[in-house]
Amino acid sequence: MSQNPPNLRPDLAPKARIDEAPRPGQPTIGMVSLGCPKALVDSERILTRLRAEGYAISPDYTGAEAVIVNTCGFLDSAKAESLEAIGEALKENGKVIVTGCLGADPEFITGVHPKVLAVTGPEQFEQVLDAVHGAVPPAPDPFIDLLPPTGVKLTPRHYSYLKISEGCNHHCKFCIIPDMRGRLVSRPAHAVLREAEKLLDAGVRELLVISQDTSAYGVDRKHDLAPWKGGEVRTHITDLTREMGKMARDAGAWLRLHYVYPYPHVRDLVPLMAEGLALPYLDIPFQHAHPEVLKRMARPAASAKTLDEIAAWRRDCPEIILRSTFIVGYPGETEEEFQYLLDWMDEAQLDRVGCFQYENVAGARSSELPGHIAPELKQERWERFMEKAQEISAAKLEARVGATEQVIVDAVDGEGATCRTRADAPEIDGNLFIDEGFEGLAPGDMVTVEVEEASEYDLWGRLV
């Protein structure tokens, strides 16, 4: 069992899991999926298409006839990680196809790795398939190559990410995601609901709703009506959550919302959480608290109003868990502005917090701002911020000792069971560990525990 590390990057998806064996003579493709859960869903879509064409999916380089690297371009460190992964794939396999966010700048990739077979950008699925066909021709056997009803999934079978839209209409100065993935494009509501239904029917116990801006779902479609179950459903995050929540509740599953931008209508989601239609969990990227820093970021500068909203959410749903991410060391950030953020954290008392040190990203407008912070000062502020976040988290988790909670089992080994409470999303939040009486548990089980011990991030409990 492993404990949640305090410097876990909050933009990473779970490691892709591939556990199927190819039939004799079946062409095989490897996949390296980097970056966030949204990219992981793209990887699943690519592999589902390939699987339908008769390809097997290899979990390693040596067992694959070619390798797809789905890249991340969110930060310069993520770009470096992507280039390193491409280089490793070239060394170990030789036939490499690059896709994903970093693929939006193909010259950047080919300038470092000229031997890659092809470079495609995000969501260019047809071009990826064309490149695979050129490198490894398909050889399907329609009597054997049956596609799972949910498609190929790279997460454990008991939870699945469900992407409801692509792109973003915001113009935050530190972010180039809209440049790489375009403006908001929402999926039709009935398509999302059908996918949710299919996943739940297949035994998924937790649906994790993701997008670049979940709150904006349906804005591009002017919240049109979609046919569903003999009636209609509005293409709006509140209506979508209500419908998915009913299905999840009937299936005994959890529904968790990620990347919820703090629009006023978020307050309409909270009563649905209080009713049990969605987990009482809001993942909202506040990024900072000081009004001037938020203005320099081109984000809403209303941190005081945000505190009022937080108070209202907690009033309407006392069990609500609030998760957020922040950037420290943003260009021009003064000591006064940083201390304001720490004081705001004392007031907000957020439950789950991730933090980035600001990094320049080529093409981001923030790179041109004056007053860039020295690396040593960014590190020092990050450490102070994390100390504050850990202090708040430790106190909140200690207050849960003695409580009885429902948990979902993620993994079981010889030492115990690694679980999550309703307050914990996979990979980015903490765990609850059971180290006695766990032998009969399996991943996907939902059990009740009494919390017996707490640390800064994790809990320990016993079955009741």
Topology:
Layout: E1 28-33, H1 37-52, E2 56-58, E3 66-71, H2 76-92, E4 96-100, H3 106-112, E5 118-119, H4 125-135, E6 159-163, E7 165-166, H5 177-181, E8 185-186, H6 189-201, E9 206-210, E10 225-228, E11 231-234, H7 237-251, E12 254-257, H8 270-274, E13 281-283, H9 291-297, H10 303-316, E14 321-328, H11 335-348, E15 352-357, H12 375-398, E16 404-412, E17 417-421, E18 432-434, E19 446-454, E20 459-463
Parallel strand pairs: 1-2, 1-3, 3-4, 4-5, 6-9, 9-12, 13-14, 14-15, 18-20
Antiparallel strand pairs: 7-8, 10-11, 16-17, 16-19, 17-18, 19-20
Helix pairs in contact: 6-7, 11-12
Domain TRAM: 398-464
Domain Radical SAM core: 154-395
InterPro entries: Elp3/MiaA/NifB-like_rSAM, Methylthiotransferase, Methylthiotransferase_N, Methylthiotransferase_N_sf, NA-bd_OB-fold, Ribosomal_uS12_MeSTrfase_RimO, rSAM, rSAM_horseshoe
How would you sum up this structure, described in words?
Keywords: 4Fe-4S, Cytoplasm, Iron, Iron-sulfur, Metal-binding, Ribonucleoprotein, Ribosomal protein, S-adenosyl-L-methionine, Transferase. This is Ribosomal protein uS12 methylthiotransferase RimO. Residues 154-395 form the Radical SAM core domain. Helix content is 32%, strand content 21%. The chain is built from 12 helices and 20 strands. Strands 2-1-3-4-5 form a 5-stranded parallel β-sheet, sandwiched between helices. Strands 16-17-18-20-19 form a 5-stranded mixed barrel. α6 packs parallel to α7 and α11 runs parallel beside α12. The model has no long low-confidence stretch (mean pLDDT 90).
